[in-house]
Amino acid sequence: MNPEQLARLGQKVAKARMSQGWSKEQAAREARISSITWKRVEDGLGVQDVKRAKVLEVLELDDRGDPVSAESQDGGFVTAPGPRTRSGISDEEVLALIDDVRSRLDAIERRIRGA
């Protein structure tokens, strides 16, 4: 996310938190993150994606900070924009592909360091 998007998201997070009647500390406890991280999100600063996702999940917001409707929720995950499609690849195949990519990246890193 660019700085402008982070700032907009932070404003929406703050508004949603206040509509819940939560302090920043209480909201952070609900999301199981530190209050410093929560403040960084509201201030429009960068945080780990997984931490930002916890903030959005506890407030029931999508990745743009807009409310998530009940029918679009998928097991607590933030839904990506666009139509949902099936890839035809099993989870095991995806994990194998990830392992392959990691191995290739490790090999590239070794070549770079050796050069």
What does this structure look like?
The protein has 115 residues and is mainly α. 60% of the residues lie in helices and 0% in strands. The protein is built from five helices and no strands. The protein has helices at 3-20, 24-31, 35-42, 49-59, 91-114. The radius of gyration is 18 Å and the shape is extended. It starts with a helix and ends with a helix.
Kindly, what is the distance between the CA atoms of the first and last residues, rounded to a whole number of angstroms?
A: 33 Å
- Mean of the pLDDT scores? 86
**Main sheet summary:** none
Encode the helix/strand succession as letters: HHHHH
Radius of gyration, taken over Cα atoms and rounded to an integer in Å: 18 Å
Assembly of the depicted chains = single chain
In one word, what is the shape?
extended
Q: Which class best fits the helix and strand makeup? A: mainly alpha
β-strand percent reads under 5%
Instruction: List the total number of helices.
Output: 5
Number of strands: 0
Q: Which blocks of ≥5 consecutive residues have pLDDT under 50?
A: none
Percent helix range = 55-70%
